[in-house]
Write a structure and sequence with these properties.
Layout (H helix, E strand, L loop, with lengths): L11 H9 L7 E5 L12 E2 L9 E2 L3 E4 L13 E9 L13 E5 L11 E4 L15 E4 L9 E2 L10 E3 L7 H9 L4 E5 L3 E7 L3 E2 L10 E2 L2 H11 L3 E8 L3 H14 L2 E5 L10 H8 L1 E5 L3 E2 L5 E7 L2 E8 L3 H20 L9 E6 L10 E10 L7 E5 L9 H5 L2 E5 L8 E6 L4
Parallel strand pairs: 5-6, 12-15, 12-16, 13-14, 16-20, 18-22, 21-23
Antiparallel strand pairs: 1-11, 2-10, 3-9, 4-6, 4-7, 5-8, 17-19, 19-20, 21-25, 22-23, 22-24, 24-25
Helix pairs in contact: 1-6, 3-6, 4-5
The structure holds adenosine monophosphate (AMP) and magnesium ion.
């Protein structure tokens, strides 16, 4: 304990280590393809199909025998008789014989006898013309395989597609869909309960009485948690009284894997979060050596055999945003099964203006990261505005968080996390 009766501040990395200690991914479930987006595969997936399933045309044009048109050119076109056509989705009922062609659409099956496709632009046929011409003049040569997508040239049946641990995005969904993987096994989404605390708080959209402010932390935390892959419930606002807070926290713990509460975590007369956490679980962390975000509490509770993480974030809105980024988002990613728990791109940037550090604490500054006109690939970090922990305008203007261990002059190099909203 320090002279003021408070425990020493814990350095950021040690605090992050305590939050992530012993955390394992949540149980798995089998979900449909679209529901898998934003989740992490618990098992490798192999292809159920060969893709493409058969040779098909890469162009709208004419299926030909390459030997027939080996000498074709603009000056010496080769005229072929058009026997019919193969639409996409239609199996060809004719074969291409010497001296003949079939009109063919992109993606349609290459008919028997044909070994190349000549694009309509390289013939005398009108692109988009409905009527089938009786003949077609071919103006370019073709070799065996020209404009044909071979069966299996993308994926073979039984081939590995995605390893366990893959994060599923739209591209993976397309690959899984094409190979008929309609459902996959992924880790469950972390359930996050969001609780605001404070007698001064009024929900956004409701009229403010005297000395009241809007609860901006609640909606912001819900959005941050969803962006980190969580399923979110907002439980509203707890009054600054221990029984009220405990009631909301009990409701939260009964459902959630992670409870994210803001406010009431410092040493004010009406700050009840620490006693509440100690009632429900075991405190693991209190007070971190960062600015903003020093008043920060973390506890673990057990409920029905489940581990529940309890975060007591500071009340000030910027401290909330920053401590979510530094502590809650990494935990949510670990629970969701991500290998890359810290996923924000780490950049090096040079300070545009001097930055005053805070003794004994790591300053986390809201910055605009921008290209340095004087150094190729270099970045500048420019303050996005007032840095007090209640100032949201500079938070919304920032695209990065710079880590500043001590007072630094302009031009000094710092490490920064690049933030991507959404
Ligand atoms: P506290 O730690 O509860 O003393 O709160 C610190 C500061 O953050 C005070 O100015 C509070 O009014 C403010 N604050 C606390 N909770 C919220 C919230 N949910 N939304 C906006 N501001 C808040
Ligand atoms: Mg408060």
């Amino acid at each position: 304990m320090s002279a003021a009766g408070l425990p020493p501040l814990i350095p950021l990395e040690e605090a992050q280590g305590r939050v992530l200690e012993g955390v394992t991914p949540l149980p798995t479930e089998i979900v449909g393809l679209e529901e898998a987006a934003g989740r992490v595969l618990a098992r490798p997936v192999t292809s159920k199909l060969t893709v493409p399933p058969w040779d098909n045309s890469a162009m709208d044009g004419f299926a030909v025998r390459s030997a027939d048109v080996a000498a074709a050119s603009g000056l010496t076109p080769v005229t072929l008789r058009v026997l019919g056509e193969v639409p996409a989705g239609g199996a060809p009922d004719l074969a291409v014989e010497p001296g003949t062609a079939l009109r063919i659409m992109t993606g349609a099956m290459v008919p028997p006898g044909a070994d190349a496709v000549v694009p309509v632009e390289d013939t005398d046929a009108e692109p988009g013309q409905a009527a089938l011409p009786a003949e077609v003049a071919i103006r370019v040569e073709a070799r065996p395989g020209t404009n044909i997508r071979r069966a299996g040239s993308d994926v073979r049946a039984g081939a590995p597609l995605l390893p366990a641990g893959s994060a599923i995005g739209a591209a993976a969904v397309a690959l899984l869909g094409a190979t008929d993987n309609a459902a996959v096994e992924v880790h469950r989404r972390p359930r996050v309960a969001v609780v605001s605390t404070g007698d001064e708080l009024v929900p956004v959209g409701e009229p403010l009485g005297p000395a009241r402010i809007h609860d901006s932390n609640g909606p912001a935390l819900a959005v941050q948690a969803r962006a980190a892959g969580a399923e979110v419930r907002r439980l509203g606002i707890a009054r600054d009284a221990l029984p009220d807070l405990l009631a909301l926290l009990r409701e939260a713990v009964a459902w959630a894997d992670v409870v994210v509460l803001s406010g009431g975590v410092s040493v004010g007369a009406h700050d009840h979060v620490k006693p509440a956490f100690s009632t429900l679980g075991t405190m693991a962390l209190w007070r971190v050596a960062i600015k903003p975000g020093r008043p920060f509490a973390f506890a673990r509770a057990r409920e029905d055999g489940r581990e529940v993480a309890l975060f007591g974030l500071p009340g000030n809105p910027v401290s909330v945003y920053v401590t979510f980024e530094l502590f809650v988002r990494p935990l949510l990613r670990a629970l969701a099964g991500h290998a890359a728990i810290f996923d924000r791109p780490v950049r090096r940037a040079r300070l545009v203006e001097p930055l005053a550090g805070s003794p004994g604490r790591l300053t986390v500054a809201r910055d605009v990261l921008e290209p340095d006109p004087e150094r190729p690939d270099g970045l500048l970090a420019r303050s996005s505005g007032g840095q007090d922990s209640y100032m949201l305008a500079s938070l919304a203007a920032a695209n990065g968080l710079a880590f500043v261990p001590e007072s630094l002059p302009a031009g000094a190099e710092v490490e920064a996390w690049e933030l991507r909203e959404g």
